[in-house]
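Example S7 (structure tokens).
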């Protein structure tokens, strides 16, 4: 029976980044996710790496380290695959479409400790010239380093890369048994393997694993819609206000996202559709009639009270670990936080208190 140092359940941003950082630390890894049965699995068509967080556009937790880790990995994946369509590096405009947003964005521009070159301020005329399809604004914050990431391509490329790096893939659900020597994993077809340690990085499903059910964490459903224009769209940057609008190809616009705290299925809803159309109408009023909706997707985020991920060992099973709660910042956080988790397990480095799963274990 094959034996691994680690088994990782979940091949989303958390599980991929963890498998990668463990492999770089010379650990053998078995990665398990039904999605791995398909080398071109579907996924979100686009997401943002936006360091100006939330309505107040605040610089987030360890932004420089997170951004640097994510972009280094993205460059590596582009080199590996020869693809130049994993992301669009054209910045993110946060137009101040109301006076309240102007107060918040301008305050952020002046007071947040932005690293050199990350942000600039645009006057109302500059915003109008930069994107004539937007309504009148009070100016806008421009994130020079903002990225539009084509998430489906990014994740599929990442999975192929890890396979080439010797990470074993299982594409079927597993059961596992815990014993004093580690874990025995058995998939639906009876295939078996053992591992010393097991990491659950299964997104929202993590909270359904029996050992991790008692956590202080919340689910938040989100939806995005894809629109197609009847003519080529004549800008490249992403726009982030009342949600986000991300360009994909010449004619596609991905509009996100909604926040639903009451219903957690993966099914798109009419209410989600209504809200996404409303966002489009508010941000691109004169364009919205030339855009036709061609798709809609739903997902479920995991969030915590301090809006930071959960990583660390289970209090009763020292070889069982968790990595979830990436919230709305899965792309930005995943690589840096995975490195912290791997260093903790492999080299004994302490997990910062604000990330440690201990803070969320309910007794
Ligand atoms: C509508 C919406 C828009 C978003 N926009 C952005 C954005 O613009 N930028 C950004 O950074 N983030 C965004 N996010 C958040 C981002 O998607 C998450 O932070 C990220 O996907 C979390 O990564 P994860 O690996 O923890 O979980 P997931 O991405 O959910 O991955 C979990 C994986 O585990 C697998 N799995 C589940 N159960 C099992 C099981 N029993 N066995 C094996 N495998 C299992 C699943 O198939 C899945 O592949 C958005 C989220 C939503 C819902």
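Recovered sequence:
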């Amino acid at each position: 029976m094959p034996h691994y140092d680690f088994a990782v359940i979940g091949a989303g941003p958390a599980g991929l980044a963890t498998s990668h950082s463990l492999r770089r630390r010379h650990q053998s890894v078995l990665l398990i996710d039904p999605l791995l049965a398909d080398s071109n699995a579907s996924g979100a068509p686009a997401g943002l790496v936006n360091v100006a967080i939330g309505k107040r556009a605040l610089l987030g937790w360890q932004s420089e380290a997170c951004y640097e880790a994510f972009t280094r990995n993205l460059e590596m994946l582009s080199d590996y695959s020869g693809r130049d369509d994993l992301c669009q590096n054209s910045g993110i405009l946060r137009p101040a479409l109301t006076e309240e947003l102007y107060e918040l964005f301008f305050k952020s521009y002046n007071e947040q400790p932005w690293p050199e070159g990350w942000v600039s301020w645009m006057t109302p005329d500059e915003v109008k010239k930069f994107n004539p399809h937007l309504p009148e604004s009070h100016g806008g914050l421009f994130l020079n380093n903002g990225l539009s990431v084509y998430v489906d391509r990014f994740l599929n490329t990442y999975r192929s890369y890890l396979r080439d790096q010797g990470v074993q893939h299982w594409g079927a659900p597993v059961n596992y048994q815990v014993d004093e020597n580690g874990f025995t994993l058995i998939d639906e077809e009876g295939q078996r393997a053992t591992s010393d340690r097991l990491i659950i990085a299964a997104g929202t499903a993590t909270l359904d694993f029996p050992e991790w059910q008692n956590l202080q964490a919340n689910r938040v459903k989100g939806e995005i819609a894809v629109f197609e224009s009847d003519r080529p769209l004549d800008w490249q940057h992403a726009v982030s206000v009342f949600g986000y609008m991300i360009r994909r190809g010449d004619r596609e616009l991905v509009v996100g996202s909604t926040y639903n705290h009451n219903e957690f299925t993966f099914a798109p809803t009419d209410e989600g559709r209504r809200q996404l159309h409303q966002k489009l109408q508010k941000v691109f009023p004169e364009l919205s009639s030339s855009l036709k909706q061609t798709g809609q997707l739903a997902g479920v985020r995991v969030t915590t009270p301090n809006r930071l991920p959960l990583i660390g060992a289970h209090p009763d099973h020292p070889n069982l670990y968790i990595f979830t709660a990436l919230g709305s910042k899965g792309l930005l956080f995943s690589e840096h936080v995975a490195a912290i988790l791997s260093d903790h397990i492999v080299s004994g480095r302490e997990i910062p208190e604000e990330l440690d799963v201990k803070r969320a274990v309910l007794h």
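Notes on this example. The chain has a mean pLDDT of 96.
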